[in-house]
Amino acid sequence: MASSEAGLDRGRSAFEEHRWTEAFEHFLDADRRGGLPPPDLERLATAEILTGKTAAGIDTLTRAHEEYLVIGDVASAARCAGWLGMHLMDTGGIARSAGWFARAGRLVDELNEPCAVEGLLLIPTALGMLFGGDPAGALQVFGQAFAIAERFQDRDIISLSLLGTGQATLMLGDANAGLRLFDEVMVAVTAGELSPVPSGIIYCAVIGNCHLAFDLRRALEWTAALDRWCGGRPDMVLFSGQCQAHRAELYRLHGAWSEAAGAAKAAQALSAAGDYEALYGGYYQQGEVERLRGEFAAAEESYRQAGHSGYEPQPGLALLKLALGDTAAAQTLVRRAADAADLATRRHLLPALVEIELAAGDIAAARRSADELALAVQDYATPMVEAASHQADGAVLVAEGEPVRAQHVLRRAWTLWRELGVPFEAARCRALVGQACRASGDDNSAVMDFEAAQAEFLALGAAPAAAWAASLQHAQAPGRPATPLTPRELEVLRLVAAGKANRVIAGELYLSEKTVARHISNIFLKLGLQSRVAATRYAYEHGLTG
User: Fold this and answer.
1) Radius of gyration (C-alpha) of the chain in whole angstroms
2) Which of 276, 322, 328, 439 would you call most buried, defined as having the most Cβ atoms within 10 angstroms of its Cβ?
């Protein structure tokens, strides 16, 4: 028994110091030697869940619930039942989750006096309303949960209620108030006042909502904090995958696409290991990088995997359909997603909606969406929402025949994207400025803007966008082949189209095979191609084989 007590002490110490695997091992050993009291069973369950042993953790938390009932601690038994419902809800065990919530409610009803668990049980009810299209109703229920939690000074439930209140407020269109609530709840998290599971829930939800509100500064700050939090718990699986998915999004926005792909892969691995909520972000961000690089088949598969999470992979999938030339499908997808979304999510979809409506030729619909995005700037003027709004407005102005006004608006958007460090959107703005210049008769400035945009796209590895910028650059250059290739690259392309291998091409042009391979890689990148067959077809279709 002495050995069991020593193991318990070591397990509790490791738990307090966030050494989850060590805590798990000590608690498990102590349990085998002499059993664990209910509070330590709860700690063991938490350590199991955090390290990806979700099924074992649920079983252990069930034991804790039963042990509390044996000793007559009904309130603690109800708390365990409530958290069992929460964990099962996250892992897709809907029926079991509902059963545990029902049991928790029955136990609370049996108590002679109110308890904090009443507030905990309101959280899933409010979440159902929040994601079921009733943010106003959710706001009211989260308020009730907060009042109960505050009465009993339960910091975990207070903070989860504030988180939900912030989410509902954001969905109702008041970004300023919602983000202030997120900042408030993050104070409790970063101060270490909360239990580990609520802390992780709040970290990940707040960062996702900052992205939704176009608040890149907050997203960066809280992602860095989450990264430090996860780094101090290196054996933690739960929430670590979501951290990697958030990192992937930031890497992608800032043009570090290889790093974004690596973080997305890490998120996928951690999702498979037990961080189920990382599934969507891991695959969606991978799909975004693949789409931007022109790896369309891979992107479609990544979006399909992301869709298995239950969340629709938009606007990425709609933009992929646009890139593949299926404008009607793109328009249908993005319109349906925007019409079904809450206000915050709809605003997040508006830049893609404007781009797709313009591609479909519906300038009036694009103008309505651009004006709607401008309203978001009035509500919450972050640099990112301003940049997106100016870019959308400028693109529509070009289509409306107002190129001079468009130039001013687009240059402001370009400046904001550059200051934010978002190179892909900055390059897109540069190309749009070129279109505005050309429409106003300034072809020399237009060509310079197109060249600059193409160079930036090439540096990123954005093959489809580079090919688009090149096509704009040469669109009004009579007598020249409509291609961005250098004379040497054209020679290499002609020989590739003739079916000649790299070794033969190197011999004919007096180059090394390594140099030929580099030329072919540049040809693929500039033209948005992925194979010699595609390059051969391009050469014949554009009259470049002579």
Assistant:
1) 28
2) 322
